[in-house]
């Protein structure tokens, strides 16, 4: 497998790699590299016999994390509880016949088998064994028990074994194990190969050093788009105005404050992107001048602010596009579809997501939203009230499926 070319589609995923005492333990080193190259963080746990085949130091250096080899290595720390905490998957590769038996019946006599009883996440087991053990009725029965509990057991492959015998017992090829991990954690990798630039949140336009003009955007819709695109295999850069949200893992996040900073950052990343989703509520107007010192109210009965138009980022990007697909948002309070349609055409977009921000339970600050997605060429899809995360997935599917004849640039499913 070409490590350098691997897309980092496991970014933000935490994996536990369990290694047991089979000669194939050396292959787990390469598997670890492949998982790391795809962006996953990997904690390695080894059984005692695994350490006879490969030194824990090898895994430690390549994973960049401490390797767990014993239940008793640090009494103050419960490694069998802490290591699988928050893990997205446990992968046991290679798994010996002994380990399959322990996993099947719930025997917990070392750190790895004990961990299996505490892990809350899905599990993939890739057995490896010599001498026809794979066909032994007890092994067959243990595999059946594990599969019945939802564990993914990857059949070993047929071929020459360490003993010289030719039988089914070789550890599944690295590509198969990686594929199984990807299929488990990225059920829809339909955005693989795309580079998505997302903007989110409000902008703040300074009046003086302590005051600014802003809006009610929470950033939740843009963050949801960024997370959905990441989960579907895209590389994502999120340019965000000030929000109270936790930056999503596995996404490059750029923090900006004003419309100008947002415009600069988006312009910098524009050539890189294949798709741009402008979910940010960018200021339309900003103070023409910013007071250097805090403005005083003494002696004033009123104050008039002189505002100028802020850069229309989407229109700017639209003018300099090469092959990017451009998606805008339209937060409206009346005539939602008509206003959104005018923006779609006026800003030269491929699609626009229009929502009525006065609708109860939807819009600014809410976890839910309802929207109409309008596309160039007259396509129109309506989505009722649902979580912003779910809506984000529907929006991405709409953008992915834009008819080729109706868009100014192309987005193919790769
Ligand atoms: O014209 P309006 O501000 O309603 O357009 C909304 C869309 O345009 C959103 O996608 C928003 O992110 C984008 N926009 C922009 N630059 C602005 C204002 C809005 O890119 N100055």
Describe the structure.
The protein has 414 residues and is an alpha/beta fold. It has 2 domains: 14-185, Rossmann fold (3-Layer(aba) Sandwich), CATH 3.40.50; 195-285 and 309-411, 3-Layer(aba) Sandwich (Rossmann fold). The chain has 13 helices and 19 strands. It has helices at residues 25-37, 50-53, 56-63, 79-82, 97-105, 111-118, 137-148, 174-185, 220-231, 259-270, 313-319, 336-346, 388-400; strands spanning 14-19, 41-46, 89-95, 123-127, 152-153, 157-160, 166-170, 195-200, 205-206, 212-213, 235-240, 252-255, 275-278, 285-287, 307-309, 325-332, 351-356, 368-375, 380-387. The strands form 5 sheets. It has an 8-stranded mixed beta sheet, sandwiched between helices. A 5-stranded parallel beta sheet has the order 2-1-3-4-5, sandwiched between helices. It starts with 13 loop residues before the first strand and ends in a 14-residue tail after the last helix. Residues 1-5 have low confidence and may be disordered. It binds cytidine-5'-monophosphate (C5P). Cytidine-5'-monophosphate is lined by residues 259, 278, 280, 282, 284, 310-314, 328-330, 343.
């Amino acid at each position: 497998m070409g490590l350098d070319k691997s897309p980092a589609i496991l970014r933000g995923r935490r994996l536990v790699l369990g290694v047991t005492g089979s000669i194939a333990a050396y292959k787990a080193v390469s598997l670890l590299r492949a998982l790391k190259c795809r962006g996953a963080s990997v904690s390695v746990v080894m059984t005692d016999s695994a350490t006879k085949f490969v030194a824990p130091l090898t895994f430690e250096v390549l994973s960049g994390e401490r390797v767990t080899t014993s239940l008793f290595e640090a009494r103050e720390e419960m490694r069998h509880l802490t290591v699988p905490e928050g893990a997205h998957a446990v992968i046991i590769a290679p798994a010996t016949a002994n380990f399959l038996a322990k996993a099947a019946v719930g025997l917990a006599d070392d750190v790895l088998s004990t961990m299996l009883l505490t892990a809350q996440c899905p599990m993939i087991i890739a057995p490896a064994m010599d001498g026809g053990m794979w066909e032994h009725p007890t092994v067959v029965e243990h595999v059946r028990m594990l599969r019945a509990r939802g564990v993914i057991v990857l059949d070993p492959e047929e071929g020459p074994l360490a003993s010289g015998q030719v039988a089914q017992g070789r550890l599944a090829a690295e590509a198969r194990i990686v594929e199984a991990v990807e299929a488990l954690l990225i059920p829809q990798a339909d955005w693989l190969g795309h580079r998505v630039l997302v903007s989110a949140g409000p902008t703040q336009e300074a009046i003086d050093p302590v005051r600014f003009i802003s809006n009610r955007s929470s950033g939740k819709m843009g963050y949801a788009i960024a997370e959905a695109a990441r989960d579907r295999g895209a590389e994502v850069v999120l340019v965000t105005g000030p929000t109270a949200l936790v930056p999503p893992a596995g996404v490059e996040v750029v923090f900006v404050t004003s419309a100008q900073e947002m415009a600069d950052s988006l312009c910098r990343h524009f050539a890189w992107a294949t798709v741009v989703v402008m979910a940010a509520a960018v200021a339309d107007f900003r103070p023409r001048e910013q007071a250097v010192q805090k403005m005083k109210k003494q002696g004033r009965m009123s104050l008039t602010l002189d505002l100028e138009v802020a850069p229309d980022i989407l229109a700017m990007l639209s003018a300099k596009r090469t092959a990017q697909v451009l998606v805008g948002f339209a937060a409206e309070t009346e005539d939602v579809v008509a206003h959104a349609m005018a923006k779609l055409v006026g800003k030269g977009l491929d699609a626009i997501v229009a929502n009525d921000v006065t609708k109860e339970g939807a819009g600014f600050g809410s976890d839910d939203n309802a929207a109409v997605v309008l596309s160039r060429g007259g396509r129109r899809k309506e989505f009722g009230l649902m979580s912003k995360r779910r809506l984000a997935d529907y929006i991405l599917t709409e953008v992915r499926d834009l008819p080729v004849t109706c868009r100014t640039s192309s987005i193919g499913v790769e």
